[in-house]
Amino acid sequence: MHEHINDPWVKKAKAAGYRARAAFKLLEIDQKDKLLKPGMVVVDLGSAPGSWSQVAAPKLKPDGELFALDILPMDELPDVTFLQGDFREESVLAEFEHLLAGRAVDLVLSDMAPNMSGNAVVDDGRMMGLAELALEFSRDHLREGGNMLIKVFQGAGFMEYRAQMQQLFRTVHSRKPEASRDRSAEVYLLGINRKS
């Protein structure tokens, strides 16, 4: 808790009006890779508290759309359509697909993480489970040529997961933004140009 309060990125986020320090991770990756463009249809999986949606939504104007989904509640944001629910449940996924109304998705974002137990084996397994779901969602909804940015842990299953992404995307990059804590095992995988 002490580390969080004194974290310069947390202070920076507060000052800039972002809901979490994670905003700077997406800002940095987007600055490098130019992921967010006007007119895109973007999905933010595991969106609460909403800092990635805060970064993404303004960059999609005009005519873009951002759909956010999380099991946790999220306060409203302008130009963001939010659905609260667990997309592992068929009914939630069906409602989400109804909101998409047949539109192909240009970009899938996922900053999801499980509740941490402190047991690396358990946490890695849960993280990979969420990552698998996000990849499955991308397989089903991402248009040809679309991109995906996802947080994963460098632990058990990481290389296998990266290999799965390489089957779906023409290029896969690793990104470790500055706002990511050094000791954190998190890394972001960026899948570029979904294959047909």
From TrEMBL:
Residues 18-193 form the Ribosomal RNA methyltransferase FtsJ domain. SUPFAM superfamilies: S-adenosyl-L-methionine-dependent methyltransferases. Transmembrane segments: none annotated. It is an enzyme of class 2 (transferase). One of its GO terms (cellular component) is cytoplasm. It is found in: Cytoplasm. The keyword Disulfide bond does not apply. Its main location: cytoplasm. Belongs to the class I-like SAM-binding methyltransferase superfamily. RNA methyltransferase RlmE family. PANTHER family: RIBOSOMAL RNA METHYLTRANSFERASE, RRNA METHYLTRANSFERASE 2, MITOCHONDRIAL. This is Ribosomal RNA large subunit methyltransferase E. It comes from Candidatus Dactylopiibacterium carminicum. The gene is rlmE.
